[in-house]
Give the backbone structure.
Amino acid sequence: MSQMRKDVFTGRWVIMAETTTVQPSDFHFKKFVRETKFCPFCETNEASTPPEVFAIRNPGSAPNGPGWSVRVVPNSEPRLRIEGKLGQRAEGFHDLMNGVGAHEIIAETPRHDRSIQDLEIHEISDVIRAYIARIVDLEGDKRMRYVLIFKNHGEEAGAHTISHSISHLMALPVTPRTVKTKLITARDYFAVKERCIYCDVLQQEQKEGKRVIAENENFLALAPFASRFPFETTIFPKSHNSAFSRISAGEVESLARILRDLLRKLDHTLGGPPYNLALQDRPFLRPRAGYWNTIEEDFHWHMEILPQIARITGFEWASGFFYNSVPPEIAARCLSSVADS
Ligand SMILES: [Zn+2]
Ligand SMILES: [Zn+2]
């Protein structure tokens, strides 16, 4: 019989298929091949993007020229713009504000033919350092509440075919609803138990082991109990920490390692699946009486990797539930059996 599983962090239900084995070959995807047309994010084409807001560069190289390993530029077609006031207002019963925010593109490598999983550990570490630097900088803009970092890999996950390996960063004047749901659950759990719900779940999952995909000194990668998508994975820091931007230099490198390891396991098992990556961080701590008082103790940042194998259908839209054809215990068994590379 199938199972209905409730996600402890969001309260969301997932119908989990009865499957006891899967043939990863059923899901075999072709590697994402990028078109070789002109690309503004390739090295030497720097003049084709807006001026960079951040880059990790070779000593002596000039801004907006070659010689970088990671380069961050404003999106030339931003969904939100950095200029102007929020102008929060009401229109009858409705709330609205101006589309103020930041929308930046993080070029993860100067080379067009590389994906994250092809990079060296020090190169992936530079990408993580760029994420941190941008979050820290944008935290200074008092209009912003949240920085959302995500990545679309493969056409089915929303990447453009000519797309270079990039991440998106959006600074938002509001906290995203998915994060807010997690914050409320974590706060309520902490109010009763005085413990972090994520730390409790990680301890239990480590003990049971059946949903653990990979582990290193600082991070644990799990197939979540109520995974929404086949082969969904979440990376958690082992030590409690609410804010991604506070990870140590050593943690940056071990995050790069576990991320590359996971992406390579997915490629090995499923071909080259399209996926989305999303950082789930805490919002900026703005003074607001009685609001998120215990957030540093109750919330625990994490990174989700969501292979886009199943389509979102009328069922998901109508119910807010998900149907997952590959139980996480099976996904974990398939992925963890791939040797580290
Ligand atoms: Zn390119
Ligand atoms: Zn924790």
Observations:
- The helical segments are 121-139, 177-193, 197-208, 249-270, 295-298, 314-319, 328-336.
- The mean pLDDT is 93.
